[in-house]
Amino acid sequence: MTTEPKTTAPLGRVIVITSGKGGVGKTTSAAAISAGLAKQGFKTVVIDFDVGLRNLDMIMGCERRVVFDFINVIQGDAKLKQALIKDKRLDTLSILPTSQTRDKDALTKEGVEQILTELKAEFDYIVCDSPAGIERGAQMAMYFADEAVVVTNPEVSSVRDSDRVLGLLSSQTRRAETEGAEPIKAQVLLTRYDQERVDKGEMMTIEDVLEILAVPLLGVIPESKAVLKASNVGTPVVLDEPSAASRAYEDAVSRLTGTQVEMRIVGERRPGLFQRLFGRAS
Amino acid sequence: MSLFSFIRKPHPAKTAQTAKDRLQILLAHERSSGAAEADYLPMLQRDIVAAIRKHVPIGEQDVEVRIERGDQMSSLEINIELPATVPSKAG
Ligand SMILES: Nc1ncnc2c1ncn2[C@@H]1O[C@H](COP(=O)(O)OP(=O)(O)OP(=O)(O)O)[C@@H](O)[C@H]1O
Ligand SMILES: [Mg+2]
């Protein structure tokens, strides 16, 4: 137990990063958002709920330091404090990795609740990286959430799955089941957005997606080469060199913490050869 | 050297190689130990706590096991937080 004097109690807010559809950018977003919150000075922990397919550790760059995992803690083989990995770049950031060898049945509602309760006493934000799908793992990741970030690509199957997940958030969660509780605050994070293709009429616009899903927009993350590069080296995109994606994630993080930030759609179009040769006009 | 090489950025970072290196180290560990490693660490920790408790009263929370997996070797670091004052037998 730590006995350092606390000025204020931690916020203890649980945010689930979910989507239904696989591969839309949940883990990328969970890593970027948790690092962004920690960078702003909030004590933040990011939990990998994708039991059996551990990946958050690689995106966060701590894969060689995993000792115990989420499931070890649930099953009483390790204490929570022993399973948390402290980020080497930000001392406000911790990672709770998942098990690579167990399956999702090892997640129990009681176990998850106990861990979250313990984390709430210590952290401002608890970011839960949900697995794809709407089965047990995804249900456990969203059940105790206060807020949800629904990661959506501007593409038909992703939007459809997001709609399904929004339905689950408003029915199959503790807040939904508790009489008089405020519902989960759900927001859409539109990722892999390509302005050029939207301009050509090949990709749905932000307005199109929001009209269908009818929930507030947390941010728009452009399709960006910086995402693959950051994952190669195990750095959350907001801790890597500034890019269109990192700026967009930082704006989204500010909005999560209640700061009003104008919605700017940053593209990643590189300057043409002409512009590069003859300086930056304008 | 190309005449136009000045146009390019000085050092395009080779992050793909980093990705490959990281995967090779990680997968070498995962393939060799697999589920076995996941289970020996909790047992090791339990044994350490039991051994220390024979002499000093410590809680299970007071043991911190850290690991750093490398390609040639891995290091295991064990920190044990001892109580500020070890109660004497008389007191
Ligand atoms: N804004 C982006 N620009 C370019 N590539 C992206 C972007 N966001 C995510 N990606 C890429 O998309 C792929 C899937 O991302 P990620 O692993 O974050 O998705 P996920 O939703 O967590 O997947 P899963 O459902 O399997 O857990 C990765 O290769 C990632 O690099
Ligand atoms: Mg993922």
TrEMBL record, chain A:
<keyword id="KW-0131">Cell cycle</keyword>
<comment type="function">
    <text>ATPase required for the correct placement of the division site. Cell division inhibitors MinC and MinD act in concert to form an inhibitor capable of blocking formation of the polar Z ring septums. Rapidly oscillates between the poles of the cell to destabilize FtsZ filaments that have formed before they mature into polar Z rings.</text>
</comment>
<feature type="binding site">
    <location>
        <begin position="21"/>
        <end position="28"/>
    </location>
    <ligand>
        <name>ATP</name>
    </ligand>
</feature>
<dbReference type="InterPro" id="IPR010223">
    <property type="entry name" value="MinD"/>
</dbReference>
<keyword id="KW-0717">Septation</keyword>
<comment type="subunit">
    <text>Interacts with MinC and FtsZ.</text>
</comment>
<keyword id="KW-0067">ATP-binding</keyword>
<feature type="domain" description="CobQ/CobB/MinD/ParA nucleotide binding">
    <location>
        <begin position="15"/>
        <end position="237"/>
    </location>
</feature>
<dbReference type="GO" id="GO:0005829">
    <property type="term" value="C:cytosol"/>
</dbReference>
<keyword id="KW-0547">Nucleotide-binding</keyword>
<dbReference type="InterPro" id="IPR050625">
    <property type="entry name" value="ParA/MinD_ATPase"/>
</dbReference>
<dbReference type="InterPro" id="IPR025501">
    <property type="entry name" value="MinD_FleN"/>
</dbReference>
<dbReference type="GO" id="GO:0051782">
    <property type="term" value="P:negative regulation of cell division"/>
</dbReference>
<dbReference type="InterPro" id="IPR002586">
    <property type="entry name" value="CobQ/CobB/MinD/ParA_Nub-bd_dom"/>
</dbReference>
<dbReference type="GO" id="GO:0016887">
    <property type="term" value="F:ATP hydrolysis activity"/>
</dbReference>
<dbReference type="InterPro" id="IPR027417">
    <property type="entry name" value="P-loop_NTPase"/>
</dbReference>
<dbReference type="GO" id="GO:0000917">
    <property type="term" value="P:division septum assembly"/>
</dbReference>
<dbReference type="Pfam" id="PF01656">
    <property type="entry name" value="CbiA"/>
</dbReference>
<protein>
    <recommendedName>
        <fullName>Septum site-determining protein MinD</fullName>
    </recommendedName>
</protein>
<comment type="similarity">
    <text>Belongs to the ParA family. MinD subfamily.</text>
</comment>
<keyword id="KW-0132">Cell division</keyword>
<dbReference type="GO" id="GO:0005524">
    <property type="term" value="F:ATP binding"/>
</dbReference>
<dbReference type="GO" id="GO:0009898">
    <property type="term" value="C:cytoplasmic side of plasma membrane"/>
</dbReference>
